[in-house]
Amino acid sequence: MLPQLSQTVYGKPLVYLDNAATSLRPKTVTQKWVEMSEIKNANIHRAVHAMASMATDEYEGTRQAVADFIGAQSAENVIFTSGTTAAINLLAYSFGELCIREGDEVLIAESEHHSDIVPWQLLCERKKARIKVLPVLDDGRLDIEALPSLITPGKTKIACVAQISNVLGLVNPIDEIVRICHDRGCPVLVDGAQGIVHNTVNVNELACDFYAFSGHKLYAAPGTGVFYVSPDWIHKLPPYMGGGEMIQTVSWERTSFAEPPHRFEAGTQNFAGVPTLKPAMEFAAMMRDRETELEHNAVIRFVNDMLVADRRITLYGRGVPGKDKTGIFSFSVQGAHHEDLALLLDKMGIAVRSGQMCAEPLMGRFGITGMVRASFAPYNTMQEAEYFIESLRKAISMLQ
Ligand SMILES: Cc1ncc(COP(=O)(O)O)c(C=O)c1O
Which residue owns the Cα nearest ligand 1 atom 14? Predict the structure, then answer.
């Protein structure tokens, strides 16, 4: 089912625990990718020939499937991008042009990925606006009690928070955050890059204004992404990039724009990649069936308990596995550098991530320069979890 796992690394079966960086891709996804390249290889929305119609149907059919998958009001609210980063840049530019003026504020959680920090910094520099930070508590949870006082009515124009931090693996209380922000007239962007993988998401119920995720973390092709824009905003946001297919008419005097979502999809789109989201979402649904969920919860409970019990290890992001703690485990070990640990684990066939995880401010919050991150997907087995813990213990003993 997952072809990538048929390989060995240094003579050992590959144990892939870097799922938060990118997931493995099932055969149904790679087959769809090949089908789009070998059979339905035509540019979408343009030509009238048969192959172009097939490609367009695949692309637009996927838009509806995504809308259904995330509970969006309609396919109109689903914009395809190249990933979460592209979606947030789109929003920071477009929303920024519409709403941000000198002296305004953008509120960002301290645990955000650089993708949800830097686009806002660029905007704030351009507009002479200011970033405010929603702090992270010692256990990794967001300081929700501080949230109301951080929102300046009329000035804090948007709040940006991940559903699940890519470092801490904790599920943030998005409902509560949205309620507090909306009560104070502040719209909310949810970075769902990790959230969409570990949660069933209904953007309508979450009531967020914007939701972004990357296809490649949800088993689909790289270079695909989804940006959900709520009905309140989809017709208000101005276009971000100009080019082919996002227009209605173009003349030297004036250009008018296509209706959303096409208004936000300038130029040739990833027509081979986007249709892979369909089998990817089917796979994701399979990974959420009751039995797989129970097995996955047992795996992450085991890993969590083992990491917490080992006094040499500091685990960041403390929660209840299967409840508000997902399978993303970031930790440091005193006297053992994160890169060395990751290299030793690699030699044992285990792929983990090490470093700042694109969240440098969060590293600063915990006073460290980097961590090791083992991120488990629902397809990781208990046997792999046990081998990881055993190997980690061995690696730590070698370095300390
Ligand atoms: C929480 C979060 N936000 C944003 C991103 C950026 O995603 P991409 O590089 O696919 O655009 C990531 C990727 O690791 C992430 O984990």
Answer: 21
Pocket, ligand 1, Cβ cutoff 6 A: 20, 83-85, 113, 115-116, 162, 166, 191, 193-194, 214, 358
Q: What is the rounded distance in angstroms from the CA atom of residue 345 to the CA atom of residue 56?
A: 44
Q: What is the DSSP string of 2-56?
A: -GGGG-EETTEE-EE-BTTT-----HHHHHHHHHHHHTS-S-TTS--SHHHHHHH
Final residue before a domain boundary, out of 249, 283, 317: 283
pLDDT in tens, 111-148: 999 999 999 999 999 999 999 999 999 999 999 999 99
Residue range 178-198: average pLDDT?
A: 98
**For residues 83-98, average pLDDT:** 98
State in Å: Cα 39 to ligand 1 middle: 31
Whether the per-residue pLDDT at 15 is higher than 90: the answer is: yes
Please check whether residue 84 is in contact with residue 22, taking contact to mean a CB–CB distance below 8 angstroms.
Answer: no
Give the domain extent around 367: 3-25+289-399
- Residues carrying an active site annotation: 358
Instruction: With cut-offs at 50, 70 and 90, classify the pLDDT of residue 31.
Output: very high
When pLDDT is averaged across residues 98-112 and rounded to a whole number, the result is 98
Tokens of 396: 């730590």
The CATH number that applies at residue 345 is: 3.90.1150.10
359 in the same domain as 215: no
Q: Which of 85, 116, 142, 224 to mutate to test the pocket of ligand 1 (most atoms within 8 A of CB)?
A: 85
Q: Are residues 196 and 326 in the same domain?
A: no
Q: Residue 180, Cα to own-chain centre: how many angstroms?
A: 23
Other beta carbons within 10 angstroms of residue 128's beta carbon come to: 11
Q: Is the pLDDT of residue 47 over 90?
A: no
Confidence at 167, pLDDT banded by 50, 70, 90: very high
Question: Residues 257, 110: one domain?
Answer: yes
Last residue of a domain, one of 283, 317, 333: 283
Which CATH number belongs to the domain containing residue 116 in this structure?
3.40.640.10
pTM over 0.85: yes
